[in-house]
Specification:
- The protein is α/β, with parallel strands linked by helices.
- The protein has 2 domains: 190 residues, Rossmann fold (3-Layer(aba) Sandwich), CATH 3.40.50.450; 136 residues, Rossmann fold (3-Layer(aba) Sandwich).
- It is 42% helix and 18% strand.
- It contains 13 helices and 12 strands.
- The strands form 2 sheets. Strands 1, 2, 3, 4, 5, 6, 11 and 12 form an 8-stranded mixed sheet that branches. Strands 8-9-7-10 form a 4-stranded parallel sheet, sandwiched between helices.
- Strand 11 and strand 12 form a beta hairpin.
- Bound molecules: 6-O-phosphono-beta-D-fructofuranose (F6P).
């Protein structure tokens, strides 16, 4: 009999359910008897011992279902050693609940912060397997996270829709794309939708260069322009400030504008007089059904997790490397972000196509 705990932590994304289904199907292929305990609302469920014993039927018909049947929440890693408002020691409680249920392994579907916590629990002696979730694709050690491609599809579709109306009216539009501190979704959706300008956090922009790119299009007789702007995009002036001043500048801008896209629109207007419209697809990028690509990789990730559990090869993060599904130690990935490098070929290719990064 194997007793497996499972939780989904952090911002949700498409294919969380598909991944859990993959794990459970894989486990039933590996072991005669398996009991699955789903902790509700992420690590919170493990801290408070809030779980449900799940049957194979609970995982049936969820391959295409967005969200997570377990619910999710954020339990910031940096607050892990701060007791809960009702005085519980979080790490101690999680270990106790794991032991109370006599679990053989805890499977954590999560992004950066969640995998850092998974690594901590592994260091504390629990058997843990991590599965790489996030629309942002910023988890270090994996070429791909599940959720990313589905978010790229939604952001691309949003920009495609804006493209047609922008061209009818000869307007300049900014579409703001999610991605937290990295520009992967914006870069991919921007290229996929033929954006003229792509602004990402890893390549700070110069507003004069952005305006020059837009003016060039007007000179070439193009009546409209599309900018794909990452929610974390940052100007060259702000990027070069010392850390404390930079943080303050970002806080000041957040107080002045609803989001980064509005700031960029305002700066373009001030510098060139152009009237800009802004669209923010926001959380739609995390919603709905996973795309086929995500269904495939999440099913494969799930199967790999089952294989690792069978081999008792714990303390691992399942990853995609060179188109193959494999695993690395959780400790190797913990605490590192996978950024876009301005030297990546994908950036060079985009520049060859005439896309401006405002740099
Ligand atoms: O990490 C996923 C993500 O959607 C980021 O792209 C975004 O910055 C953040 O979560 C939004 O978080 P919340 O759902 O808490 O507003």
């Amino acid at each position: 009999m194997k007793r497996i705990g499972m939780l989904t932590s952090g911002g949700d994304c498409q294919a969380l359910n598909a991944t859990m289904r993959g794990v459970v199907k894989g486990l039933h292929g590996c072991f005669k008897e398996v009991e699955i305990y789903g902790f509700l609302e992420g690590y919170k469920g493990l801290i408070y011992g809030n779980y449900q014993k799940l049957s194979p039927d609970d995982f049936s018909g969820i391959l295409t279902k967005g969200g997570t049947i377990l619910g999710s929440s954020r339990t910031p890693f940096k607050e892990l050693d701060i007791p809960t408002p009702d005085g519980l020691d979080k790490v101690k409680s999680m270990k106790e609940n794991y032991k109370k249920l006599k679990l053989d392994c805890l499977v954590v579907l999560g992004g950066n912060g969640s995998q850092k916590t998974a690594n901590r629990l592994s260091e504390e002696g629990l058997n843990v397997i991590g599965l790489p979730k996030t629309i942002d694709n910023d988890l270090w050690g994996t070429d791909m996270t599940f959720g990313f491609q589905s978010a790229v599809d939604i952001a691309t579709n949003a920009i495609d829709c804006i493209h047609t109306t922008a061209s009818s009216h000869g307007r300049v539009f900014i579409v703001e794309v999610m991605g937290h501190k990295v520009g992967w979704i914006t870069l991919h959706a921007g290229i996929a939708s033929g954006a003229d300008v792509i602004l990402i956090p890893e390549i700070p922009y110069d507003i004069k260069k952005v305006c020059a790119a837009l003016e060039n299009r007007t000179k070439e007789g193009k009546g409209f322009s599309i900018l794909a702007v990452a929610e974390g995009a940052i100007s060259k002036e702000v990027a070069k400030l010392p850390k404390k001043e930079r943080k303050q500048a970002v806080t000041d801008a957040a107080a002045k504008y609803p989001s980064v896209a509005y700031e960029v629109a305002d700066k373009i207007k001030q510098y060139s007089g152009m009237d800009i419209r802004v669209t923010v697809p926001g959380h739609t990028q995390r919603g709905g059904s996973p795309c086929p690509y995500d269904r495939v990789i999440s099913s494969r990730f799930g199967a790999k997790a089952a294989e690792l559990i069978k081999k008792e090869d714990f303390g691992k993060l399942v990853v995609m490397k060179n188109n193959d599904v494999t695993a690395i130690p959780l400790s190797e990935s913990a605490g590192k972000l996978k950024y876009v490098s301005p030297d990546d070929n994908i950036v060079k290719n985009a520049k060859m196509l005439g896309i401006s990064f405002g740099d």
